[in-house]
Amino acid sequence: MKKISLVVPVFYEQEVVLQFLKETKSVLEKLDVDYEYIFVDDGSKDNTVSILKEEALKDNKIKLIVFYLLK
């Protein structure tokens, strides 16, 4: 089976990330492919990371990479 990896950059996306997941999952589930999400957060200070962490606990297709700025 083919696999699709969606690499999704996020930055202050708390307002839309759940809707993005809902809409893309509805499309991906209709395809004959295995898929995963790889979200890459570039230092959001809102709830984007916590929302994605919570979703990743419920769905093993969701991966999260978080970049933090070191000062």
A few lines on this structure:
With 71 residues, the protein is α/β, with parallel strands linked by helices. Helices cover 32% and strands 30% of the residues.
Please provide a written account of the structure.
The protein contains 2 helices and 3 strands, in the order βαβαβ. With 71 residues, it is α/β, with parallel strands linked by helices. It has a 3-stranded parallel sheet, covered by helices on one side. The longest helix has 12 residues. The mean pLDDT is 95.
Q: What attributes does this structure have?
A:
71 residues, alpha/beta, three-stranded parallel beta sheet, 2 helices, globular
What integer is the average pLDDT?
Answer: 95
Biggest sheet, spatial arrangement of strands: 1-2-3
Going by helix content, strand content and strand pairing, the class is alpha/beta
Shape: globular
Q: What's the helix-strand series? A: EHEHE
Report the uncertain regions: none
Helical segment count = 2
Portion of residues in beta strands equals: 25-35%
The largest sheet, given as strand count, sense and whether it forms a barrel, is: 3 strands, parallel
Mind telling me the C-alpha Rg? 13 Å
End-to-end gap: 44 Å
Write down how many β-strands occur, each being a DSSP E stretch of 2 or more residues.
3
User: Which bin fits the share of residues in helices?
Assistant: 25-40%
